[in-house]
Amino acid sequence: MADKPLLLDSIINQFGQKVDFYEDQESGDFAPVIAVINEIAVITDFFDTDDFYQDSEYNPVLIDGKIQCYFNITMQKT
Fold it and tell me: Longest C-alpha distance within the chain, in Å?
């Protein structure tokens, strides 16, 4: 975050958490999107924000101090 990445978008995930999506300004589209929830950041496996929208199973969620994909949470319950 010290490199001042560009804010691309923000959503509210399934847990009511605000997720901000950033792009590295130097690498642009050639670097994965960074997701930030409650000042915790993670580099996603995505290169754009098209899959992140209300109720998307790919939305990042923060659980026990770790960010993971909502899809992984639902797969663990089955």
Answer: 41
Q: Is the pTM of this model over 0.85?
A: yes
Bridge partners for 55 per DSSP: none
Task: Determine contact, residues 43/32, Cβ cutoff 8 Å.
Answer: yes
Q: Are strands 6-12 and 40-43 parallel, antiparallel or unpaired?
A: unpaired
pLDDT along the chain (78 residues), means of 10: 86 97 87 96 94 95 95 71
User: Counting beta carbons within 10 angstroms of the beta carbon of residue 75, is it exposed (0 to 12), middle (13 to 18) or buried (19 or more)?
Assistant: exposed
Q: What are the sequence ranges of the domains in the chain?
A: 6-77
